[in-house]
Amino acid sequence: MMAVSVDGLYVAYGDTVAVEDVSFEVQEGEIFGLLGTNGAGKTTTVECLSGLRTPGRGHLTVFGLDASRRSSTLRELIGVQLQSSQLPDKLTVGEALRLYASFYPRPVAGSALLERLGLDGLRDACWSTLSGGQRQRLAIALALIGRPRLAILDELTTGLDPQARRETWQLIEGIRDEGVTVVLVSHFMEEAERLCDRIAVLDRGRVVAGGTPAEIVDRVIGSTERITFQIDPSADVSLGIVRDLPEVDRVLRDGLGVVVDGHGDVVLAVTAALARAGIAAHDLRVRQAALDDAFVALTATEEDHS
User: 56-80 burial by CB neighbour count: b if 16+ within 10 A, else e?
Assistant: First the structure.
């Protein structure tokens, strides 16, 4: 069943267009990622989807219901964790759960959520005393307490340390395994590659790519290998000797750092060309193209390629 359908979404703030003709679909039971740089229109899109903002035009449905109508039935289907969640400093974890539970006819038992999310010992802890990871876990609990069929999680792991981020990823996978559809808003490519069944990439208010992470990488980058290395600051180097190689697709330079994307025997061709020119390549590394490479290619401005 289709969980979410967004068709021709348009939102403007005065003369500034935030979202322009955005369309995508989310299947029930999947983790769907909305990816984009800051200001790409991700948060505006999910605010419209959750009924928090009225679009200028477009049609949005959640499990067949019109999202713009903001009905009580729709509110019971959606759990939302917004990018900038904030609670009163003195509000305790237990009080927050009881408050949110009062909004729904059949809430989940708060004690069960606390135990599942590793917050059981923090029932009486105030919001102001919680760590970043604990606040994110509480945000998930508040989004789930109404037994939603759709969970919208906006920049859930921003500001978390690597360990807390991975623990949060496991929680999201657990939510999906229990049958909850997840729309995950993020600009972390590792997070999207790890969690998302399918993604849509937004750039300046438009969808510029969609599909599985692997499909997008293959479509945008192909079977590219990426070579990175540093050059000696005293060397008088022209990268034309690398750029003109038939195996090389793109060369980017940032100070002393060089990035080469290519195909075939590109590693051998580049290293041989550098050796013939007497150029020492320090800290040379090779890896296959990943989602972050495709994301950069999709969202880069003209200045980024100069």
Answer: eebebbbbeeebbeeeeebbbbbbb
> Percent of the chain at pLDDT above 90?
43
Outline which parts of the chain fall under CATH 3.30.70.100: 223-288
CATH fold of 223-288: Alpha-Beta Plaits (3.30.70)
Say whether pLDDT at 187 is over 90: no
- Using the predicted structure, report yes or no on whether residue 27 has a pLDDT greater than 80: yes
Cα–Cα–Cα angle for 47, 56, 104, nearest 5°? Answer: 35
Which tens digit of pLDDT belongs to each residue from 220-257? 877 678 899 998 876 666 778 898 999 998 888 877 78
Cα 103 → chain centroid: 29
Closest CA to 184 of 222, 216, 145, 213: 213
pTM for the full model? Answer: 0.78
The rounded distance, in Å, linking the Cα atoms of 109 and 167 is: 22
Structure tokens at 23: 């369309």
- CATH 3.40.50.300 positions along the chain are 2-218
Of the two residues 85 and 267, the one the predictor is more confident about is: 267
CATH of domain 2-218: 3.40.50.300
